[in-house]
Amino acid sequence: xxxxxxxxxxxxxxxxxxxxxxxxxxxxxxxxxxxxxxxxxxxxxxxxxxxxxxxxxxxxxxxxxxxxxxxxxxxxxxxxxxxxxxxxxxxxxxxxxxxxxxxxxxxxxxxxxxxxxxxxxxxxxxxxxxxxxxxxxxxxxxxxxxxxxxxxxxxxxxxxxxxxxxxxxxxxxxxxxxxxxxxxxxxxxxxxxxxxxxxxxxxxxxxxxxxxxxxxxxxxxxxxxxxxxxxxxxxxxxxxxxxxxxxxxxxxxxxxxxxxxxxxxxxxxxxxxxxxxxxxxxxxxxxxxxxxxxxxxxxxxxxxxxxxxxxxxxxxxxxxxxxxxxxxxxxxxxxxxxxxxxxx
Length: 344
Ligand SMILES: O=C(O)[C@H]1NCC[C@@H]1O
Hints:
The structure is a single chain. The chain is α+β, with helices and mostly antiparallel strands. The chain folds into two domains: 9-150 and 323-329, Diaminopimelate Epimerase, Chain A, domain 1; 155-318, Diaminopimelate Epimerase, Chain A, domain 1. Helix content is 18%, strand content 40%. The protein has five helices and 18 strands. The chain has an 18-stranded mixed β-sheet that branches. A hairpin with a 2-residue loop joins strand 6 and strand 7. The longest helix is centred in the middle third of the chain and has 18 residues, at 199-216. 48% of the residues are buried. It binds 3-hydroxyproline (HY3). 3-hydroxyproline is lined by residues 23, 69, 94, 97-99, 251, 253, 259, 261, 263-266. It is an enzyme of class 4 (lyase).
């Protein structure tokens, strides 16, 4: 039987669904009106102010779920960019997303957003709100595979910061930037284990930390105020000294949303932090494992650089994304739940 859309009014929103290490990525193919703005960052402001109802339609139930993640491809103002992208989640729009870059690298080659793919790797320049991220997509025999990307400059923002966390008292943590700011704490501080504890307990502890940092620490970013906010908290297994052993973490971001992947921007920020503390050297690759699914990315610092007054590093993160399907979404005018809802 031919796939036909049910009767509906208004626009159809079509998407390609992917996942990277278990973390969903809903890539929007069509249905969005023009996103206005003369830069990717101003387009991010525009969708937040004018098109947020579409984020809720695509991310929330009944079409999505609490932990859904999306990408809207937009034009970039940078001549070297192959595409610009806005990221969306359960609370709004992030500035960087590594798992999405890994998926979008494949998508860009498969959907011909770049001309003439090269073997063994095709470079795809993706302009994220945090800046230009260079992705390198394995390509052979007409098929795309794993993706590695080079981050925007990543830096340790503050180490050994003590905040008062509701329910836990004083907690000492680090804050690092990998295209987005994260607080890092060893899960042991809360009597938890990132791979074994109940997800709900990890989420509660991480969320309490996020709330504490947001209210007690002022962040700033050298290039834009739009980037100066805490995106989430990453609980780790504390294995930050270089070793060939796998190290696990779990990222709780946006509105208590749980990353199923090891978190590309989080790995970037964590590697920058480890480098800043002298725990790893350039080109020492480590394997980072998601506490939620066990999926893995590799990460290494490849070059020293600066970001304003911060000493920074360029970090390379690698992983693999997969397609899960395509959907065409519609809205019926008499459906009271059509605009989306979330269960907390
Ligand atoms: O991989 C990442 O960087 C993202 N995954 C969800 C939260 C982060 O944006």
